[in-house]
Amino acid sequence: MAPPPGGRRVSFIRFGLLHRRAVVFCALVAIFFILMQWAKLPINVSYSRRITSKRIKTVSRPAINRPNIVFVLADDYGWNDIGYHGSFIRTPNLDSLASEGVKLENYYVQPICSPSREQLMTGRYQIHYGLQHSVIMCDRPHGLPLDEVTLPQQLKKNGYSTYMVGKWHLGFFRKEYMPLQRGFDRFYGYLTGGEDYWTHRKPSQYSKDPSEYQGLDLRDQDKPVLDQNGTYSTHLFASKAIEMISNHDHSKPMFLYLPFQAVHGPLEAPKEYMEQYKSIENTLVRTYAAMVTVLDEAVGNVTRALKTHGLWDNTVFIFSTDNGAKKGKGSNWPLRGWKNTLWEGGVRAVGFVNSNLLEKKGRISDALIHISDWFPTLLRISNGSLTGTKPLDGFDVWNTISTGALSPRTEILHNIDPLKALSSLQFSYKLYSDVFNTSVYAALRSGDWKLLTGSQDRGGWKHQGPSHNMFDKPKEQPDKHIWLFNIRNDPQEKNDLSDRYPVIVLDMLEKLSAYNKTAVPPFWPPRDPRANPALHGDLWGPWI
Ligand SMILES: [Ca+2]
Fold this sequence. Notes:
By secondary structure, the protein is of the alpha/beta class. Helix content is about 30%, strand content about 15%.
């Protein structure tokens, strides 16, 4: 029942003093909260502005705002053939660029030309598209499979202008395999693996196989270049790269892929550069040194052009070799082995990054990095998408390079090539073959451990320079087909530990076996006489 109206008034009168105090208390509390809100409001606004401005700053930061990407790939350039590794060869431009940026001292590539380029272009191991055997041969109908997505294709989707100058070596038997069809807007260069530096013909007098075909291999877009006979390729490619830089539309970011012919065989260098090393008696050493110095000068000229045209400040510049020096041509000292071997001399690479966009510059990185890592790394810094790509073997290592963060990579599958398996009859014993066929040519890096199996060229330690030529051969049983090394402690691969650590060997073989289960069969078609340039106007090009 409701109380009579008078009763409430009486109650107010009775407890008036108490209620007035309560009202004052409530008012004070309300004012307090209002003041608190007022006091907090500007803090929230300023916090919000700080976050917003940070976001805006992050988004607009050049590091992730589609920087220009310039990737210089040297060919068959040895570990010891750069100034900062102690070489007698003069490489002032490369030394300076590396010192300003980040030297990658635990950086790996593949041991031969095509596979390194395949993995750079796809971010995927070659076992995953059937190119685990040898290189793309100029008269065999194969190439980087067309369903593999390439780096320039992805960058182009993201608005990049894509330029390539130099050596392709990823297939051309059909037009669809050529650079313009694989993501490049501009292409000036050659399609095969090697040729004469002046005539641009493959092969020239250096060919050992008389059955190999001869022909011109130099194109501008898809047209043969007939007027550069006599222009040394390192000079030619640098001038074409500078021309593309000069003509670049600055409203778009640029991807310039510059795989020089240098310093792949044949060893040929202009006289004026040979003069710089005239005190060296060994002609091969003198010529190779001169070729490296031309390359160094070319890189200096390209970077100067990027600065002149206002592109350098927002450029990520990468220098890498595609594999170690060939035996007797260049030096991988003190590493074991050379090009076309899975020893460190074949796969541990000269590489560095220079960019104003690096957060911590002027340092050496010991982080494990592989050439397949550039694909996701460069797509990340270019705000590119991985949509449509196949499962990657590469890792995004930008933070590792830029800030020194730990590398996300802990393993590298150097290769598994079943076509290079030795006959089991050649082995008097076959250890662990129930886990992995140890007669197969393979190598795996996991942490500091490296395991090699099968038919390995034994390599050796060759120290070649202006006044010395020393060669140590490994002392091993001829039927040896398993090696285990701790690369951190023994980067020269001198102390095989496979007998001492059988559990680690077994673990590594199980990992190799797991990788092998993801492999597709190697594709190695026979030579095709229809490739002969004599049938195509003396020009190497598509024949099917
Ligand atoms: Ca090479």
